[in-house]
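pasting input
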Amino acid sequence: MVVKVYGPAFACPKRVLACLIEKEVEFEAVPLDFLKGEHKDPEFLKLQPFGTVPVTQDGDYVLYESRAIMRYYAEKYKSQGTDLLGKTIEERGQVENWVEVEAHNFNPPIFNLTLHVMFSSKLGFPRDENVIKESEEKLGKVLDIYEERLSKSKYLAGDFFSLADLTHLPFTQYLVGPIGKEHMITSRKHVNAWWNDISNRPSWQKVLQLYDAPL
Amino acid sequence: MVVKVYGPAFACPKRVLACLIEKEVEFEAVPLDFLKGEHKDPEFLKLQPFGTVPVTQDGDYVLYESRAIMRYYAEKYKSQGTDLLGKTIEERGQVENWVEVEAHNFNPPIFNLTLHVMFSSKLGFPRDENVIKESEEKLGKVLDIYEERLSKSKYLAGDFFSLADLTHLPFTQYLVGPIGKEHMITSRKHVNAWWNDISNRPSWQKVLQLYDAPL
């Protein structure tokens, strides 16, 4: 069964695409035009009542929320492709710890940077320089903690690549590219080595090749 | 080994306590006084570099982020106490879907209500009526989607109680209690039945009995 992934051009769905490529799971991308309001279409809302992406559809089985979808496919195809959950329950615990750190510490400031630097004019709201400044400061503090962590282990959850690293790819790609704050990564030795490692994985390069344009 | 849980009086650690009680895992609560800055103590920051709670310490094994900790103990003691993850990979996928909905759709507005209604004077920042109004509107829309969902299945992830339900307990308890917006639950038939069910579980009643005071 080919897995349908809705909204491939957006950041969160790109997490899912990278995960599916790592797991060697075949997928079909289904584009959605947010500016035309396709995410509020009644048929789409039957799949995802909150009107956001990604959604995956695998026969009758529908899932949403990028981090939930990644966990499901990483578990379903545990022995296929790259193991993304760790080998033991304790390793998986660390993966979950750092997936949650990404969601609750890393994502809020980098999401605000994305919104105000990349999308304010497109979406028609004022770019707020205070939000940008505060978000950069908060993100810097988070990255200082990552720097310390990555001085002790090669990846966030330990010495193995996992969902904890993969989940950082889409928004960090914006940070070093269109947001124009690559220095936040390159100025931190271990964070920089980690970023070079994970962003050069064939899975992520493939995602960028297929769906580069940030929307 | 007794599991140490730091910060039992706060909302997010209460998720972990309810989970440990459901899983019949023995724990020891370690109070932290945020007003005295104990969460920024260098010794505490060695356990949790972001300076937040909960943290669990199980011998040498340290975890943080409430939803990660719940997943770890629910998995580690899969066959002990209440099964909180579903019986199949597909059921677990739905659990993850709704845990993530709680984290990204339900929690932001209810957290803002908590902050502005319950804690603004204590923490010394102005209560913002606009934030309160907008948060209530957003939360109402989320609860409308829950109402629809819970008209089709008894619990959020299906016809079984799981982490997806349990994760809602602490902040919904604030909503119907000190926030004073019980009508948001009682006015929605299926949400109300669900809330009566999950909030009357012995695990949650035990948590309230031990650590009732909202801090």
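fyi The beta strands of chain A are 3-6, 27-30, 55-58, 61-64.
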